[in-house]
Design a protein that fits this description.
This protein is mainly beta. Helices cover about 0% and strands about 50% of the residues. The N and C termini lie far apart (about 30 Å).
């Protein structure tokens, strides 16, 4: 059981695997992706999609980070998470 998370185009965050959901992310300022297993990721898009773990245990996460140079044809980090995920949500992390 697992999910894969990545950005697509300039306005979509995609979660696919055990669950499949797409989030419109026109502005990623202060937005976070939350998962049912307690993980939370900050989301940044500035021509490249970047995801950073900000809450939870990263032992079951496999990151594929994108190159930051302009010659790369890839434009999104890819996160693969092992374990059961029953929901995902996009929102702002409270203080």
């Amino acid at each position: 059981m697992s999910v894969k998370i990545y950005g697509s185009s300039d306005d979509l965050i995609i979660v696919e695997g055990d669950i499949t959901v797409e989030f419109n992310a026109y502005s990623t300022q202060d937005e976070c992706l939350f998962l049912s297993n307690g993980l939370a990721f900050s989301v940044e898009y500035n021509g490249l999609w970047k995801f950073q773990l900000i809450r939870g245990d990263g032992r079951f996460i496999n990151y594929t980070h994108i190159a930051t140079d302009s010659n790369s044809k890839k434009y999104s980090d890819v996160i693969e998470i092992k374990g059961t995920i029953t929901w995902a949500g996009l929102g702002i992390l409270g203080e």
